[in-house]
User: Fold these one by one.
Assistant:
Number 1:
Amino acid sequence: MKRLADIAHSRAGDKGNILVLSLIPFDEKDFDWLVQNITADRVKKHLQNQLQGNVTRYVLPSIKALQFTCEDALAGGVTTSLALDSHGKSLSYALLEMEI
Amino acid sequence: MKEKIRIGCGAGFSGDRIEPALILTENGNLDYLVLECLAERTIALAQKRKLQNPELGYDVLLEKRLRGLLPLLLEHKTRLVTNMGAANPIAGAKKILELAKAQNLSIKVAAVFGDDVFEFLTGQEHSIENNQPIQSYGKLVSANAYLGVEAILPALETDANIIITGRVADPSLFLAPMIHEFGWELDQFDMLGKGTVLGHLLECAGQLTGGYFADPVSKPVPELDRLGHPFVDVFSDGRGIISKVEGTGGMISEQIAKEQLLYEVLDPHHYFTPDVVADFSTVQFEEIAFDQLQVSGGGGIEKPETYKVSVGYEAGFKGEGEISYAGAHAVERAKLAGEIIEKRIKGQITNLRVDLIGLNSLHPTELSKNSNPYEVRLRVSGMCDTMEQAQLIGEEVEALYTNGPAGGGGARKMVTQVIGVVSTLLNRDQVKPSFQLFSV
């Protein structure tokens, strides 16, 4: 079984309670496949216990990358969250666990 | 007007390493060095230090960072732009003079202030996050507007060696020297957008040279233990070439730059700063030589009419307790321990969170369900109104030694006072940036 981690990399960032996940193919030839298959809905479903709010996807052909902006995703946000990883920095690797 | 300037970034957050800035200044041939040391919450904590002592409130690492840096800045004619003033740029400037004096250095420092808008707030302003009046979150302790290049430019026009600010949008620390040197106009939003792209790429320092990127299996980065921080050669047409000091660890690559371009960006088509609404979607990267990446494209449209204000409030006390279990039935024993704590104190602490570190503390999702680790660490945490309540959490976890499941070891307890942060907007005419010069 292949995982996203086999074909793409990701960096997680936060703004308040919003989580931002980039998704970038190692080989730019895989970009179109990612655009067609890794939708906002699929990301929301994959991380359903983590992502409470809307997920918006941005497609960036110029740098061959996707960006997922996930609202209400960090248990209140870094300043008041009880989570061990209150920034959600490790969630990039949760996204990359997705089976493809 | 210059055709090209070089800007380095020697720190990307308040706790960043000290050494890379020294190496950049010594060997980087920089025109400007930026130290970005102010996170969302850092300034609220600094405000509390200032309340206790009016001579404090600047970055706690200021002395450590600048003592060795001052002679290098003067020797190499590199100007420093930093937000290490935090809640008290004037006290920060005075501290820098003190450091210079002790080394017999002659130096001029410009302190930029006006970001502290606490006295202008009524508490009725609504938060961007939940649209609630900000005073409903808790006792307010700080309010700082994200200033832009307009606050920094007048200070750059003096002959100050160091410009120290409080809250300023991170990319503006980089954009201001570009505008100053290239003579860009403040309504040339396309140019300001390009400059903001470069500032955003640089602002997290080591994150552009392989830090927060490295994965020994899929994304190896050489010599992270000696990670160098980046610099950019900016051209007057808004192009940039990113590189780092030869011989330092880490690397420059298109892959790293892609990750950093999108880092913490909510909408890549509309990146809001006080200077411009930048468009990152048209940026292009090209690896033009070993450890050299060209950045072109990007743009921008007119800046927002309001300033974003970061408001700090007292959010209570966080209590935490941890204890580890290993070997046969480790997960089962840790779960039992967690259940015991919940039964004992759930009546008093309503928002208790129970994690098993090693199993599900990072991602409590389907992903972690089938793992069976050799050892796990129970972590119990809760947000409380009082310190006494918060202490109870760690005390109960520690008491598991003799009152809980077999083989618990390594208990630790901790209480933290929590400063929450929300944002609101303020009209531009309510914020009046200014600066003051100090020299020795």
Note: Chain B touches chain A through 51 residues (CB under 8 Å).
Number 2:
Amino acid sequence: MRRLQERLARYLSPPLFPVHLSDIPATLSFHDAPTAEWEIGDLRIRAAPVSHPGPTIGYRLSDGAHSFTYIPDHEPVLGTELGELPPDWISGHELAHHTDLLFHDGQYTEEEYERRVGWGHSSVAHAVEFARRSDAARLVLFHHDPLHGDADLDAVRGRAEALWNGNGAAPPTLAHEGMELEL
Amino acid sequence: MYVRRHKNLVLILAREFASKLATPMFVTDADGKLVFYNEPAEDILGRSFAEAGEMDAEEWANLFETEDLDGNPISLAEMPAGVAFVERRPTHGTLRIRGLDGVQRTISVTGLPLYAHTAEFVGVVAVFWEES
């Protein structure tokens, strides 16, 4: 498995980019996500690989009282029904289990996903089902499709709300620039 | 309380791969525990995975009464999947097993160790088929 520095150096090199990573006039430090939990200030952070083409990780941040799970690039199942899998066989489940707030990939409508299986992203139905199987308290959909306009996103949110049935929890919403959430 | 450990992503992907194959295949974790086999494997092993469930290495190594083609019992460390597990190297072999349906079958097996990172062994996949 290549290290983060090697991966970035590949992108910052000709013919992809004229300037090499080593040419950048700065002291660069690269931190590969540890496999064990680590701490930054009062936060405990855990990273784990999730299903997506190429090495990809999701994160869980916790201060002991509340937790936030961030899985922006994720296709939790490939050609399998999420509802049929035991929790320990669901990609990302260990990060999202009983989290207070889940930021999750919700790029496609269910119809769009049918033509994009294996691209590494979730349908709105996947995102909602993943949140439900993980017992996440709140779901915020993220990684919006760049071809979706406001009307499309409203439809995605409406579909997520219809699917949610979240046992009294707040319905899913869409991430947007400048959004602030309190845990 | 027994808590099932979350499976490594490589095992999750191996299971998804196996579940789409018409080729018999089983998956073990890093401890050698048999954690999944697919429907085509059920025909050879003689019982559905849902019925058999997960089982430790010694358990599955003994359960199928594995022997070589001369009828001599062989240990886990001599089976292709066992070599992949114990020695962490791929191997291939032909042997006889008795399925849980009581039928003895001759099968060829290829066992492959799985590494998530260079030094992170996470399990084994074994692909096998019945010799005619």
Note: The longest helix of chain A spans residues 150-164.
